[in-house]
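tokens incoming
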């Protein structure tokens, strides 16, 4: 997952420069003309039926396309079948989603990781021998012919389900431990060989594979592995003629001048076009449950400044990333329905070249919300967008479940003074004290059980059972089970008291 840190503050940036030539080519109303919404399906993949509900909303909000990161939810077949998760989409479901996207005028760009972030492939015993470092399943060994054959097979299967593609994202970000495998160490001992050249050679091999098999399709790569490479090395590699880099940064105080300089560097190296990548969710905390809309809005406003200070003919478009996990093994961050208001605000800001009270009112109208807060989590209205009930219930749980249980169990003097772990273990309770907190505990448990039941039902409409279980175990069970245990211990203590056992 791409989690860029904040760079130099804007106060220190140089005066802005606007390039007017060709502005209409890639910009509209001050914003990028192509706006891809990234769906990160490696965690909490929505049911196909929910995506069918959401796509018209995305179009209405200003999206022009989708960046679909399938990971283990693609229906891989044959030798690649082990990659397919139990909840993967069927070929029919993928075709239906793609057909619905086309009907909405949304261009689809598939994303398949082909170098780093390969855990969903390399964790399997069938493919573990293709790891760069034997112990780590994150990066692919770039030296093996079998690695390239694997990547080609994955790309071919995804391509086969997609028609008329213009772009295909081949990933290639965060290739940690590259150069530390045994074959790489031997390769790097040879004269003039460097980790940068090793990285570029694999990117070139994958991009060349796409170019030869699908000449009408342009590969896109994440740019972080390219940023630190010298202009000369980049230019000599041949990579700039084969791919378009997607420059990602999710910081609220993104360094505008630094990005403008990076774009100029990429142009000098021979890249004809670049993409930007912002974030509407999944970039402010690995286990974040509610979306910081204000943070993401600021990030997009900064990207608009980068766009207005760069040659317009170099910008192909922007992808609004919505990370669902930081990597294959991490916990879930904000669920898609929870982040739709953030996505709406960010899309409208990009479409209109900024954000204003009038645009805010339009977002509220599109979402069916009477009051959308960007600086706090507490939007008072429910909303009518698909999954809005999940946002309402997740907000309740995130704000009040843990705090209300902690208030009762850790700050109620009757519990801490007369029903401590010592008392609970021995089933000791003072009959008078019991009446001071038992009704509160029972009432609180009843209230939260009802909320959680509603949330579970709402989530099951949108997600598979495994997602519901994971989210509940991470966000609900720790507090709810603690409360349930106290109520159970109270019942046991009362029964022991009636039996004269204390």
């Amino acid at each position: 997952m791409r989690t860029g840190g904040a760079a130099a503050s804007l106060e220190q940036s140089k005066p802005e420069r606007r390039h007017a030539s060709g502005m209409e080519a890639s910009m509209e109303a001050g914003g990028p003309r192509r706006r891809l919404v990234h769906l990160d399906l490696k965690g909490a993949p929505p049911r196909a039926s929910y995506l069918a509900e959401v796509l018209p909303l995305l179009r209405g909000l200003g999206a022009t396309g989708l960046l679909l990161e399938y990971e283990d939810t693609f229906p891989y077949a044959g030798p690649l079948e082990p990659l397919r998760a139990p909840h993967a989409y069927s070929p029919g479901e993928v075709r239906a989603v793609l057909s619905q996207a086309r009907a909405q005028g949304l261009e689809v760009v598939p994303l398949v990781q082909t170098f780093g972030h390969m855990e969903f492939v390399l964790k399997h015993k069938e493919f573990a021998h293709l790891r760069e470092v034997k112990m780590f399943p994150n990066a692919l060994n770039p030296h093996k012919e079998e690695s390239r054959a694997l990547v080609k097979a994955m790309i071919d299967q995804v391509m086969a389900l997609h028609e008329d593609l213009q772009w295909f994202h081949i990933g290639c970000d965060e290739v940690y431990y590259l150069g530390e495998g045994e074959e790489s160490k031997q390769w790097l001992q040879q004269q003039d060989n460097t980790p940068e050249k090793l990285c570029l050679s694999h990117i070139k091999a994958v991009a060349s594979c796409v170019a030869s098999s699908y000449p009408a399709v342009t590969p896109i790569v994440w740019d972080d592995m390219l940023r630190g490479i010298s202009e000369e090395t980049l230019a000599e590699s041949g990579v700039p003629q084969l791919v378009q880099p997607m420059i990602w940064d999710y910081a609220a105080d993104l360094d505008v001048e630094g990005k403008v300089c990076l774009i100029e560097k990429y142009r000098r190296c021979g890249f004809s076009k670049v993409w930007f990548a912002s974030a509407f969710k999944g970039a402010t905390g690995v286990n974040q449950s509610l979306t910081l809309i204000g943070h993401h809005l600021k990030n997009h406003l900064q990207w608009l400044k980068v766009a207005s200070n760069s040659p317009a003919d170099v910008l192909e478009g922007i992808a609004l990333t919505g990370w669902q996990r930081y990597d294959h093994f991490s916990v879930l961050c904000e669920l898609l329905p929870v982040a739709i208001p953030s996505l709406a605000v960010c899309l409208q800001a990009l479409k209109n070249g900024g954000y204003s009270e009038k645009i805010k009112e339009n977002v509220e109208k599109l979402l069916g919300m009477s009051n959308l807060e960007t600086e706090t989590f507490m939007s008072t209205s429910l909303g009518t967008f698909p999954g809005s009930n999940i946002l309402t219930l997740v907000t309740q749980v995130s704000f009040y479940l843990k705090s209300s249980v902690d208030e009762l169990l850790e700050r109620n003097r009757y519990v801490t003074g007369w029903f401590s772990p010592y008392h609970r273990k021995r089933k000791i309770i003072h009959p008078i004290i019991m009446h001071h907190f038992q009704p509160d505990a029972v009432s609180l448990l009843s209230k939260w059980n009802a909320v959680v039941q509603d949330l579970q039902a709402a989530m099951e409409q949108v997600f598979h059972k495994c997602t519901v279980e994971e989210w509940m175990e991470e966000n609900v069970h720790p507090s709810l089970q603690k409360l349930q245990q106290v109520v159970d211990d109270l019942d046991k203590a009362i029964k022991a008291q009636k039996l004269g056992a204390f």
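note: The chain has 18 helices and ten strands.
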